[in-house]
Amino acid sequence: MDFAFTEDQQTITQAARDMLLETCTPAGLRKMLEQNQALDAARWATITEMGLPGMLAPEAAGGLGLGLSDFIAIAEAAGYAGLPEPLVELAGVAVPLLAEFHDDRGWLARAAAGEIIAVGHAANPFVTDADIAAALLLGHGNEVHLLAPEAVVLTRQESVDPFRRLFRVDWAPGPETRVAASWGLTAERGALFAAAQMIGLGQRCIDLGVAYAKDRNQFGKPIGSYQAVKHLLASAQVKIEFARPVVYAAAAELDLASLPARARAAHAKIAAGEAADLAARSALQVFGAMGMTWEVDLHFFLKRALALKFAWGTPALHRGTVLSRITSLATGPDATFAAELAR
User: Fold this and answer.
1) How far apart are CA 231 and CA 236, in angstroms?
2) Which backbone phi and psi does 101 adopt, to 5 degrees?
C-alpha cells in the first residue's frame, strides 16, 4: 500500500497549514480567552472560503467529494496550530455522518458551507461546541436525532482545556427528530481525527521544547547542548514518528468498515495518545517549573492533548477493539492491512 500523499493533497494541506499558523497564534488564543470568545469569525470565514468544512461532502451538496486520507493531514495541522474552532469535528465527523442519511433535511449542504453541527455521541460524556451550533446530532440508544438549538437545554461543564467548550444536553427524542437508525462509523472517525490532532499537538510541544532548549542558557551554554535534554526530546520525537504512519494507515482503510479497519483506527488513537502525552510531558520537563504557568504557550497544546486522549473512547476501550481483531482474525506479514484481509 502506498501511503505517500499526492501532489494535490500536499498542496491543499500546505495551504491550510499556512493559513492556520498565520491566523491561529498563541497571542490570538490568549485574546480569545480574555474575551471569552468561542470562535474567531474572521478565521472561520477564511476556513469556510477555502472549502475545508466540505472536503468530505459530496460535490452534489457543495463539497469537494474527497476522502479521509485527503483530510487527515489537515486535522493534524489543526492540532499543531491549537485551532479552537470545531473544523475537525464538523468536517471529519458531522459531515460524513450527514452524508449517510437518507434525508439530511438540508443540513449536509449547510454544514459543508460552514454552519456548525455539534455531535453528541455516546463515546463522549458531553457535547463540544453545542453553544455555537446551528443544529445538534444527538443519540437516543442507537438512533441519531437532529435537533435545533432551541429544542435543547445546555449546561456548561468544566474542561482541562479552556477551548473545549463542553455541555450536558437535556432534550426529548421524538419521531420528528429521528434521522437515522445508527451512527455507522462515527465513533471511529471521531477517534481517527482526534488521533491526527494529537500528532500535531505532540509535534508542536516538541518544537516548543526544542526552541526553548536553544535559547535557555545554564552554566554558560544552551540547555539543549546537554545530552539529557537532547535524549528527552529525541525520544518523544521518535514516538511521534512511529505513531504518525499508523494514523495515516487508519485513514486509508477505515472506509472498509471491517473489524481490521476499525482496529486500525483504535490503534491509531492509542499510539497518537501515547505519543502526544510523552511529547507534552517531555516539553514540560524542558521548560521546568515555568512550563506549568499560563505565561508559557506550551499549556495550550498540553491541555488539548490531554483532553483528546480520552475523547472518542478511552485507551482501554480501544485496546479492547485491537484485542478483538488479534484474537479473531489472522495475523502476520500477509495480514497486516485490512485491505488484504478483505480479499
Assistant:
1) 9
2) -75, 145
Considering the domain architecture, whether residues 175 and 206 belong to the same structural domain is answered as: no
331-to-61, 62, 188, 323, 338 alpha-carbon distances in Å: 40, 41, 21, 12, 11
Q: How confident is the model at residue 217 (pLDDT cuts 50, 70, 90)?
A: low
* Residue at a domain's end among 180, 207, 231: 180
Shared-domain flag, residues 209 and 255: yes
Q: Which three cell numbers stand for residue 192?
A: 481517527
Name the pairing type of β-strands 117-120 and 135-140: parallel
Residue 213 within any structural domain of the chain: yes
Does residue 1 lie within any of the structural domains? Answer: no
pTM: 0.94
Looking up residue 106, the CATH number of its domain turns out to be 1.10.540.10
Our CA angle for 223, 226, 228, nearest 5°, is 110
DSSP letter for 37, please: -
Q: Which backbone phi and psi does 221 adopt, to 5 degrees?
A: -150, 160
Q: For the segment 134-184, what is each residue's pLDDT rounded down to a tens digit? A: 999 999 999 999 999 999 999 999 999 999 999 999 999 999 999 999 999
Domain containing 42 equals 7-180
